[in-house]
Amino acid sequence: MDNSELTGVVIAAALAVLAFGITRIAVRHFARRRAAKEQAEAQATQSRQVRRASERRKR
After folding, report:
1. Which residue, of 6, 29, 55, 58, has the fewest CB within 10 Å?
2. CA pair distance 50, 44, nearest whole angstrom
3. pLDDT-based confidence at 35, cuts 50/70/90?
4. Could you give the CA distance from residue 38 to residue 40 in angstroms, rounded to a whole number?
5. Does the CA dihedral 12-14-18-24 come out positive or negative?
6. How far apart are CA 51 and CA 40, in angstroms?
7. Minimum mean pLDDT range among 15-24, 40-49, 50-59
8. Which comes out higher in pLDDT, residue 41 or 19?
9. CB–CB of 51/43 below 8 Å?
10. What SS3 state is found at 2?
């Protein structure tokens, strides 16, 4: 393996690691958004009494 092949392999590995990191961040971001949206929808369908009781439990 000469120097240019080794450089290509190192660059490809670095790009793979970078792409993996970006993908993990994106997945985590969208999962949080989806969870927040589902929680908001669940609270919207709850009665006022249930919402107030769950707020008291959180405190």
Report:
1. 58
2. 11
3. very high
4. 5
5. positive
6. 11
7. 40-49
8. 19
9. yes
10. coil
For residue 34, give both structure tokens. Answer: 């989806």
Cβ-proximal residues to 2 (8 Å cutoff; 6+ apart), any chain: none
Q: Which two tokens stand for residue 56?
A: 């008291």
AA identity, residue 13: A
Q: How far does the chain reach from its first CA to its final CA, in angstroms?
A: 63
Cβ pair 45, 37 in contact under 8 A: no
* Phi, psi for residue 26 in degrees, rounded to 5: -65, -45
Amino acid at 3: N
Q: What is the pLDDT of residues 4-28, one digit of tens each?
A: 899 999 999 999 999 999 999 999 9
The first and second tokens of residue 8, run together, are: 């290509």
